Amino acid sequence: MSFTDYKVADMSLAEFGRKEIRIAEKEMPGLMYIREKYRASQPLKGARIAGCIHMTIQTAVLIETLVDLGAQVRWSSCNIYSTQDHAAAAIAAGNIPVFAWKGETEEEYWWCVHQTIQGPDGWLPNLLLDDGGDLTEVVHRDYPQLCQEIKGVSEETTTGVHRLYQMMGRNELKFPAINVNDSVTKSKFDNLYGCRESLADGIKRATDVMVAGKIVVICGYGDVGKGCADAMAGLGARVLVTEIDPICALQATMEGYQVTTMDEAAAMGDIFVTATGCCDVVTGEHMLAMKDNAILCNIGHFDSEIDMRFLENPANNIRETGIKPQVDMFTFPDGKTLIVLARGRLVNLGCATGHPSFVMSNSFSNQVLAQITLWNDHYDLGVYTLPKKLDEEVANAHLAKLGARLTKLTPKQAEYLGIPIEGPFKPEHYRY
Ligand code: NAI
């Protein structure tokens, strides 16, 4: 009988997806290293993983790595705009249940998440792999009886990790969690160097705007904001930064960026990028003060940063014109227009294809290692990060591809520094 346990946009895209997956595999040496290292021992045998991460080509390589190591998986995307339909089709063509397409409604989004939790013949997950915390929340809220069966969740992003620590603080977390985001080889690479490439990609594909000479306002100067600021400055923009944290604000000034408030910056910026993981960063008041033709976008996880409701509220008499998918123009009563990308959702995944494969190989290697340890080892209730040794192993798996050669400590040097020749090379408190 043919395989029907999926819902994607267009199965005729499967071959295109498969070709791009093959190219991505060559750019994802960490995942390929993990496949080689663990395939024979099948460390994920018996694991039934429900996954909720942007259904991209890179995620397809992640999914197939989990399957290669013995897991059964069911998948949905963690954002309504982020699926690459050819990637989803290729996964479905490989008889892996996937429920994801670009441009889902909110209702369809939640339907897809539920499909990953309840499969045919009583299939239920015993491990979760999440990005942003929606899957984790749904399981806690709608499937409380399942929480005991679930050995844990590995969480991809800053916002999801933040939600996990909040749940833990309220005594609501019902299974152990691994904070993948705070592996150094995740947040100091994906959030920083990933966004440094994919922010510009999203803005350019959406608008073709010339960035050089423009004033770009970056809200939030954490790992993501740092990458975004660097990208825009590299293209010749004048970068303004807003921050609430004096340390990050001081870092921005050291890079030569002007740090100011949104109240000041609103009337100055040509392009606004929110990267805070916070809410109400760009408000209606700010939009009223903005220049004609200003571009607004968000690269943080949720669409809580730009006040879309202000733009959509009929009482404000703002006329909306769709330019193309994920690009909308809003005309104010005085004739001024603002251009909003991906309706305030992640611009790099909504308007482009997210981060490049190589950096996602770092992130997803941490994900696979987290899944392996959650499945095979015992964890008490809590939120954990992976040991530094594994972080170093992930980095190591990516060096050869770039032609990097690592210096090896001599026994005398190791003794002088008081560290093992094979690492870990840094204490836990080292910040990179
Ligand atoms: P972070 O915590 O390192 O940085 C956020 C920064 O925003 C902090 O420095 C914080 O002080 C600042 N901030 C908070 N509220 C603010 C406000 N109201 N105004 C100005 N600044 C404010 O977090 P990170 O890792 O940079 O992530 C930021 C967001 O991006 C999160 O939602 C995360 O999940 C998401 N993310 C998105 C990715 C993508 O591909 N689009 C990739 C990685 C993370």
Number of domains: 2
Class by SSE composition: alpha/beta
CATH architecture type of the largest domain: 3-Layer(aba) Sandwich
- The poorly predicted ranges are none
- What summary fits the major beta sheet? 8 strands, mixed
Briefly note the CATH topology name of the largest domain.
Rossmann fold
Query: Can you tell me the CATH superfamily of the largest domain?
Result: Adenosylhomocysteinase-like
Based on CA atoms alone, the radius of gyration comes out at: 22 Å
The amount of beta strand, in percent, is 5-15%
General shape? globular
Number of helices: 17
Mean pLDDT: 98
**What's the count of strands?**
15
CATH C-level name of the largest domain: Alpha Beta
Note the gap between the termini.
Answer: 53 Å
Small molecules bound in the structure, each named once: 1,4-dihydronicotinamide adenine dinucleotide
Helix content: 40-55%
Strand order of the largest sheet: 9-8-7-10-11-14-13-12
Structure description:
The protein has 432 residues and is an alpha/beta fold. It folds into 2 domains: 11-186 and 355-396, Adenosylhomocysteinase-like (Rossmann fold, 3-Layer(aba) Sandwich), CATH 3.40.50; 193-351, NAD(P)-binding Rossmann-like Domain (Rossmann fold, 3-Layer(aba) Sandwich). Helices cover 42% and strands 14% of the residues. An 8-stranded mixed beta sheet has the order 9-8-7-10-11-14-13-12, covered by helices on one side. A 7-stranded parallel beta sheet has the order 3-2-1-4-5-6-15, sandwiched between helices. Strand 4 (127-130), helix 6 and strand 5 form a beta-alpha-beta unit. Helix 2 runs parallel beside helix 3 (57-68), helix 8 packs across helix 15 and helix 15 runs antiparallel to helix 16 (388-399). It is globular. 50% of the residues are buried. The mean pLDDT is 98. Bound molecules: 1,4-dihydronicotinamide adenine dinucleotide (NAI). Residues 157-159, 187, 190-191, 194-195, 219-225, 242-245, 248, 275-278, 281, 299-301, 346, 348, 355 line the site of 1,4-dihydronicotinamide adenine dinucleotide.
